[in-house]
Design goal:
Elements (H helix, E strand, L loop, with lengths): L18 E6 L4 E8 L2 E9 L11 H23 L8 E7 L3 H18 L3 E5 H7 L17 E6 L4 E8 L2 E7 L5 H11 L6 H9 L22 H17 L3 H32 L3 E5 L6 H14 L2 E3 L11 H12 L17
Parallel strand pairs: 1-4, 4-5, 6-9, 9-10
Antiparallel strand pairs: 1-2, 2-3, 6-7, 7-8
Bound molecules: 5'-O-[(R)-(carboxyoxy)(hydroxy)phosphoryl]adenosine.
């Protein structure tokens, strides 16, 4: 790993008077953050436990919870940042992709606040936000930011993409899943095992006590840099059914080995295509982003690849792996410098590419 000055070459928070409020509400996290330049002053997130009982996010409940959370979360973000709303320069908000009902809460709130303060609004693509989270500076953490161009593996509950990041606003998808996302596959396998929701962190914890070589699951054979995780999910389900037929308590007896083998297979699939893309494109700066980047096995695989292949790797702090508003605010900060604002009538988009 190495440290480098900001590749964007912009002044840090101390030399600018730009304050950006970021708002994120694309799924089941209501988040607000304040940045002074590129320096994070606050990042407040309210998660929604209400979905646990359903084993997945229930869109209607998510938008209702966002409505309850948005005012206190923004209030806290301003308080922790130690600024008044009147000092804000602009409001950046997630415009998509995401759940429409959830997005609408953040978008409407951003519009109302921006109009009342008479400041510009900046629409942010949630996926770009995940990638650009690497450029948020925290005063107590040494800056470790990738230079352009770099590759970013974006892995979450909804996406698995290899992105060539040429600049903060020029990103190209070089590979992506043709069916399920990596996080979605892990969550579904965890559900089949009767574990809680979301499955990712539970599988991660269990995997630490298991043997990653205990079981083999099917891996996709598709051309190029694309991914596929639906076959793995089906293979996991069918093998489990076979084993349970001879031992009703199979899951209980082998859950750590099952989790470790599942995690190992997912990480193997992800790293194989990433390695290919990095080699073909001649890129050695490789970042990871999104909820699944919190996974211990995946983080370790990045460190191993740094040693074996001479990569410079960029692994986000845990607080930036899942959905957060700091990543929306930093994207907003870059767009602010280009005066790239959006009109008041800008609608939310449930589906939009990077
Ligand atoms: O980026 P994110 O918060 O939300 C979106 O999907 O946009 O990602 C959530 C995904 C879920 O599938 C969750 O199970 C997974 O990230 N996840 C993990 C871990 N923490 C969260 N997967 C594996 N290991 C983890 N430690």
């Amino acid at each position: 790993m190495h440290s480098a000055p900001s590749p964007i070459g912009r002044a840090g928070g101390g030399s600018t008077s730009v304050f950006i409020l970021g708002i994120e509400s694309s799924c089941d996290d209501t988040s607000a953050a304040v940045l002074h330049g590129d320096v994070m002053l606050s990042n407040v997130t309210a998660s929604q436990a209400v979905h646990e009982a359903y084993g997945g996010v229930v869109p209607e409940l998510a938008s209702r919870a966002h409505q309850q959370n948005i005012v206190p979360v923004v209030d806290q973000a301003l308080k922790r940042a130690g600024i008044e709303a009147s000092q804000l320069s602009a409001i950046a908000f997630t415009r998509g992709p995401g759940l429409m009902g959830s997005l609408l809460v953040g978008v409407s709130f951003a519009k109302g606040l921006a109009a009342s303060l008479g400041i510009p609004m900046i629409d942010v693509n949630h996926l770009q936000g995940h990638v650009l989270a690497h450029f948020v500076r925290q005063t107590d953490v040494e800056a470790h930011q990738p230079p352009f161009p770099f590759l970013c593996l974006l892995v979450s509950g909804g996406n698995s993409q290899i992105i060539l990041v040429k600049s903060y606003k020029d990103m190209e998808i070089v590979g992506q899943t043709i069916d399920d996302a990596a996080g979605e596959a892990i969550d579904k396998c965890s559900k089949v095992m009767g574990l809680g929701y979301p499955g990712g962190p539970i599988i991660d914890k269990l995997a630490r006590q298991g043997n990653p070589q205990a079981y083999q699951f099917s891996k996709p054979h598709i051309p190029g840099y694309d991914y596929s995780f639906s076959g793995l999910k089906t293979s996991f389900l069918y093998k489990l059914k076979e084993w349970i037929a001879t031992d009703a308590d199979f899951i209980e007896h082998h859950k750590a080995d099952l989790a470790a083998s599942l995690e190992h297979t997912v990480v193997d699939i992800l790293m194989h295509k990433l390695r290919l893309a990095a080699k073909d494109l001649g890129i050695k700066h490789v970042a990871v982003a999104g909820g699944v980047s919190a996974n211990t096995g995946l983080r370790q695989a990045f460190l191993d690849h740094a040693r074996r292949y001479g990569w410079q790797v960029y692994i986000p702090p845990f607080s930036f792996t899942t959905d957060n508003a700091a990543m929306i605010a930093i994207t907003g900060y870059f767009k602010y410098q280009d005066h790239d604002f959006c009109p008041m009538e800008a609608p939310a988009f449930s589906r939009v590419s990077i």
